Amino acid sequence: MLKFFRAFYFTPQFFAVGIAAVCLLAFGFAFGFFFTIARLLLLVVAALVIADTFLLFRPGVAVTAKRKLPKVLGLGDDSKIDIRLNYHGSYELKSRIIDELPVEIQERDFDIEKILKPGINELSYSFRAITRGVYRFGNINVFLQSPLGMVRRKIVLKLERDVPVYPSIEQMHEYEMMAFSRVSAPMGSRQFRRIGQSYEFEQISPFTEGDDYRNINWKATGKIRELMVNQYQDERSQNMYCIISKGRAMKMAFNKLSLLDYAINSSLAISNVALKKYDKVGLITFSDKIGTAIRAENRKGHIQKILESLYHEKERELEPSYELLYRSIDKIARNRSLLMLFANFENRNMAMRALPILKRISKKHLLVMVLFKDDELEEKSRDTPENVEDIYKITLAKQHLSEKQEIAFLMRSQGIQTITSSPRNLSLDVINKYLELKSKGMI
């Protein structure tokens, strides 16, 4: 009996009719015929509730379900979740399906309304993982309602399951295909392209769209009467390190993802591309202390090692120690290497404190500073002010953007390669820079 009452719910229609009956009863004290109408209405409602309860709770009505989840979710990816409901019944029912999503998503009003037909009913939805870690999916709650609309039956389907959220493997493969494509690939208003050309001969192959006309091999073309070009390959076995700051400035969020998460996704993407180009890749994370320190290698399973390390990284509250980073690089990267340093300087003073160390690092290695642009502040700076408060906010936004530009100029003036990128284009810009430097033979 207790199980029955836990599954039994009245609908809003029932309460609406009940309130109408109470109002008629109140009017019945003044006008007798309203009292009679109210009694008849209550009898009708009682009959409908009994009939509705029978339709929903009779033994033949049951629902089972399966939820199809990927083994691993990607950070920042839109993940599709499929649900298959098997409805055992002989007539259609309205349903409200509530899937208990992980608390990290903070979706408190998620539900799906669907007409359940006897047999298999399929539905799907998508969501975006915004933090790394383990996401717990809870039960699926199904509320059934007949056409009478007086009562609902709740069915709880026990389908709890944990799914880990890793740095985006999907984005990693996407950028890998773009990096090795011989034809420029559009991406919004930008293009991902290979810049420059190395001069280590690889082979002669037929001309395709996107090849450099300067590489046409006229002797081979004359022999087979088809355009042939010389193909060159980049130099191999170079050392590259992705270095990620985990200081408090990397906690800043853009589109619900922290800057650290964007740096992690980008590091995974560039590491995969570099490994595919036969370079050696390492990883260093730091804040007030060194987190991960992986020497540059190119062996089977190395990308998985980097992926697992990035999965466990967390932001820290203190400012990063660049002196500690310098000692760590000196110990781990003994040969000249390309260093992709992801950092966020909140103001010019922070950059000035780090600059002497960064100059010392750049003397031994090819250092590329990856700085973040604030797209939201740029949009705010272009707004038209309507009052004094707007003028104040727009002025502060312009001042902050100007300081960011000054930091980037300061780095470049000291001979440090610098990328200033918005979070959404971070992986694209970093990989383009890597290909540019590699094609110019600067690594």
- What number of structural domains do the residues give? 4
So, CATH architecture of the largest domain?
A: 3-Layer(aba) Sandwich
Task: Give, in spatial order, the strands making up the sheet with the most strands.
Answer: 20-19-16-21-22-23
| Percent in helix | 25-40%
Count the beta strands: 23
Report on the architecture of this protein:
The protein folds into 4 domains: 56 residues; 105 residues, Immunoglobulins (Immunoglobulin-like, Sandwich), CATH 2.60.40.10; 224 residues, von Willebrand factor, type A domain (Rossmann fold), CATH 3.40.50; 34 residues, no CATH class. Helices cover 38% and strands 30% of the residues. It contains 12 helices and 23 strands. A 6-stranded mixed beta sheet has the order 20-19-16-21-22-23, with helices on both faces.
List the defining traits of the structure above:
Rossmann fold; five-stranded antiparallel sheet; six-stranded mixed sheet; 4 domains; alpha+beta; Immunoglobulin-like; elongated; 443 residues
Short description:
By secondary structure, the chain is of the alpha+beta class. It contains 12 helices and 23 strands. A hairpin with a 5-residue loop joins strand 9 (140-145) and strand 10.
Q: What is the element layout, followed by pairings?
A:
Blueprint: H1 2-7, E1 8-10, H2 12-28, H3 32-57, E2 62-68, E3 73-74, E4 78-88, E5 93-99, E6 112-116, E7 119-128, E8 133-137, E9 140-145, E10 151-157, E11 161-166, H4 169-179, E12 185-187, E13 190-192, E14 200-206, H5 218-224, E15 228-233, E16 239-245, E17 253-254, E18 257-258, H6 259-276, E19 280-286, E20 290-297, H7 302-311, H8 322-332, E21 338-342, H9 348-364, E22 366-372, H10 375-381, H11 388-413, E23 417-421, H12 426-439
Parallel strand pairs: 3-11, 16-19, 16-21, 21-22, 22-23
Antiparallel strand pairs: 1-10, 2-4, 4-7, 5-6, 5-9, 8-11, 9-10, 12-13, 14-15, 17-18, 19-20
Helix pairs in contact: 2-3, 4-6, 6-7, 6-12, 8-9, 10-11
